[in-house]
Amino acid sequence: MHVAQISGETTIDDGRIRVTRWAFDRAGDKTGFHVHEFDYVVVPITGGRLTATDADRATTEMVQVAGASYTGPAGRAHDVAAQEDGVVFVEVELLQD
């Protein structure tokens, strides 16, 4: 199986919010393990299947639906991997309380 670590493209970072576009070109692409410093909102662009793996190696299967936003808390730690080609989402981090 193909595995590549991807980098997000930050499009806004103004001290209040940070907006990053994540594009998984191929199944197996992953973000790399990371910890969210801030609360965040995810806006799926394409929808698609992803797997999140936490620090204890527990996995959560996710199905994103294009346009169906969801939130995540500061402190969440995981690696996210695409289970299919062409998954894209935008992450909006809320830098201020």
TrEMBL record:
SUPFAM superfamilies: RmlC-like cupins (SSF51182). It comes from the Bacteria. This is Cupin. It comes from Herbiconiux moechotypicola.
